[in-house]
Recover the amino acids of this structure.
């Protein structure tokens, strides 16, 4: 395989696999808990965080993680299970995006090292541009997120499917919700490095949505979501490598969307059964 | 008035400042376009917030980016791309039952995937169109520098048409939004109204995208309306208030952007957010005062 002789491709494969695994696991719970809009908001926050860090002269990843985790804690503190009003979330994140533009201009005009494509890279990702150190760190962090999700998977599943019963059984529902939001924030920051802050919502939602269509059994669906995400990442990277006109983040999104569409068309089931796991 | 006079700084005299700003034809056009967009976005956004269709509005707003990128790639005016994609997107959302109203996990996963895929398509169009990278930022975050008189005319005509249609369906739409079941019972065509409203919302987002950019349209749609609905419960009054807030936010945003190096989108969202926060604070304060007055009068709640 000639692709593996290019270091940039190997780095992208390493980081991409770990990131897709984490996104598939976290995304499954995001869809199960109907918190996709929260994921959307966190992705916008990732953009502002990254550009704020660049404008102030720090590492981009520091800003990504600081902003998303902070916002996740804020959302968790504002409402039970982080479900604040849609309009309130919308207002806050559209302002945060505006703030991101401010930092973008600050970065491109005031720092002489700044380049005009930084904003585009943050928004749409540049997975083929990772160095070996960046790729290894990304893989390590994504691995930690995966382990954390698996560690709380059982109680979190219980709390997501039936909150009232879980609370009665002394499952710490509120704490789990907060920990989960922090994991979503960390995962959003991770995924932003691969597919960009605008597109990471697709990586979170598409494999999980497809998996939820294909099976009702919770652990199967969790494993399927992670497996699909990794397979889609590989297919997307291969596609982008063989057709250089396609940017990698577009190729990954296209494969993920196609898989979701196929899952929806292939498995036509009654809506009631799909909705069963959501409660 | 020569260039040196016109480009002088803020003088704290509103009349001369406005004269300076309006000495530039592009600023006059920006004010005209901004006014049209603010009125349209505030009215559409008011109904959007009332109908709890924020997610649909957000999705429609994002669709305008691939639209503009596709039009640029094909070599036709970006305005056509905005309108074609936004109105098309509105029809698609209208076809999915209950989509865009929050909905369950599965439905919002679908909306999220469609959103991300369309944005990825926009990125692909941009990547295929070489040398377009500088323009991405102005597509995404807005720019008021290049608005031509012809564009202002198109915007005004489209806005007038959209507001005209809304004026015709306004009363039944309000009825259907406030209490859908009763409206159905009275024979109001709720479903048809919903489709027409989504198309109008698509038109509004297509227009507003050209001023604030794709990513920040949502701010102009949601925040003035949300602030106005915090302040009063009477429909006509809060609709008027929403328009006033949007106008104030857009005008101050234009002036601030003229005097500083930062883009207009940042100012519009920041001012709108400030108004929203103030409105919430006023509401909280007001209800606290009410509660105390009731308690003082000896009323038991």
């Amino acid at each position: 395989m000639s692709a593996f002789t290019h270091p940039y491709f190997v780095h992208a494969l390493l980081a991409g696999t770990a990131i897709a695994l984490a996104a598939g696991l976290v995304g499954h719970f995001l869809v199960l808990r109907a918190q996709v809009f929260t994921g959307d908001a966190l992705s916008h926050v990732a953009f502002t965080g990254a550009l704020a860090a660049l404008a102030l002269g720090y590492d981009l990843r520091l800003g990504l993680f600081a902003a998303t985790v902070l916002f996740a804690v804020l959302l968790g503190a504002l409402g039970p299970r982080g479900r604040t009003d849609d309009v309130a979330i919308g207002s806050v994140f559209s302002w945060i995006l505006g703030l991101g533009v401010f930092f973008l201009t600050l970065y491109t005009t005031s720092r002489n090292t700044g380049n005009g494509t930084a904003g585009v890279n943050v928004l749409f990702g540049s997975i083929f541009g990772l160095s070996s150190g960046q790729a290894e760190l990304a893989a390590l962090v994504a691995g930690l997120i995966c382990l954390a999700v698996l560690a709380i998977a059982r109680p979190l599943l219980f709390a997501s499917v039936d909150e009232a019963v879980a609370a009665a059984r002394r499952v710490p529902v509120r704490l789990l919700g907060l920990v989960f939001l922090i994991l979503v924030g960390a995962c959003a920051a991770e995924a932003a490095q691969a597919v960009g802050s605008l597109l990471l919502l697709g990586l979170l939602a598409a494999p999980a949505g497809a998996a939820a269509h294909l099976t009702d059994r919770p652990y199967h669906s969790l494993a399927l979501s992670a497996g699909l995400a990794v397979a889609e990442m590989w297919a997307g990277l291969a596609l982008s490598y063989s057709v250089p006109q396609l940017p990698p983040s577009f190729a990954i999104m296209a494969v993920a969307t196609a898989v979701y569409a196929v899952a929806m068309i292939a498995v036509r089931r009654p809506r009631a059964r799909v909705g069963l796991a959501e409660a | 008035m020569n260039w040196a006079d016109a480009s002088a700084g803020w003088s704290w005299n509103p009349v001369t400042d406005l004269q300076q700003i309006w000495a530039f034809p592009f600023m006059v056009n920006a004010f005209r376009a901004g006014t049209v967009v603010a009125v349209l976005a505030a009215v559409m956004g008011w109904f959007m917030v009332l109908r709890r269709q924020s997610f649909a509005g957000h999705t429609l707003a994002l669709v305008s980016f691939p639209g503009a990128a596709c039009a640029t790639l094909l070599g036709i005016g970006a305005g056509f791309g905005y309108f074609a994609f936004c109105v098309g997107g509105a029809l698609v959302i209208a076809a999915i039952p209950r989509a865009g109203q929050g909905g369950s996990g599965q439905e919002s996963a679908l909306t999220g995937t469609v959103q991300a895929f369309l944005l990825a398509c926009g990125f692909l169009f941009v990547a295929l169109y070489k040398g377009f990278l500088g323009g991405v930022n102005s597509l995404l975050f807005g720019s008021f520098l290049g608005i031509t008189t012809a564009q202002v005319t198109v915007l005004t005509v489209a806005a007038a048409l959209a507001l005209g249609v809304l004026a015709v369906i306004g009363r039944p739409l309000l009825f259907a939004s406030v209490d859908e079941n009763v409206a159905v019972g009275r024979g109001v065509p709720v479903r048809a109204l919903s489709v027409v409203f989504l198309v109008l919302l698509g038109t509004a987002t297509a227009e507003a995208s050209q001023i604030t950019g794709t990513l920040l349209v949502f701010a102009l749609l949601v925040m003035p309306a949300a602030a106005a609905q915090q302040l009063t419960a009477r429909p006509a009054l809060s609709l008027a208030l929403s328009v006033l807030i949007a106008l104030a936010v857009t005008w101050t945003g234009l002036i601030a952007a003229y005097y500083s190096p930062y883009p207009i989108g940042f100012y519009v969202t920041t001012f709108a957010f400030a108004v929203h926060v103030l409105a919430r604070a006023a509401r909280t304060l007001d209800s606290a005062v009410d509660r105390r007055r009731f308690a003082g009068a000896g009323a038991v709640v």
